Amino acid sequence: MTNYAIREVDKNLTEIAKFPSGEDTPTEVYRIQRHLEGSIVCTCPAYIANCKHIKMLERWLKLAPSDRIGVVFNDRKDAFFHTITEQQIKELLK
Ligand SMILES: [Zn+2]
Q1: Alpha carbon of 71 to ligand 1 centroid (Å)
Q2: pTM for the complete prediction?
Q3: Which of 1, 14, 85, 94 is least enclosed by beta carbons within 10 angstroms?
């Protein structure tokens, strides 16, 4: 299972690091840029408007800032957060 960790570089730029199963160094780092006119662009090869990294970022931004540190996503459809409770996950996935 591939894991992803998110880091906010600044207000409009976020990096998502990709960690293949069992690896502790990322094999890819994708950058997600939020442009002034509102569009969001990811540098991953999918090159689509709403790739899975942008979806992960949207979920991540729903967390309280203090809960964002250390959150890891997997690449299943039901991407989970390992630092929060089942109840919080249910709230986020409503
Ligand atoms: Zn992407």
Answers
A1: 18
A2: 0.74
A3: 94
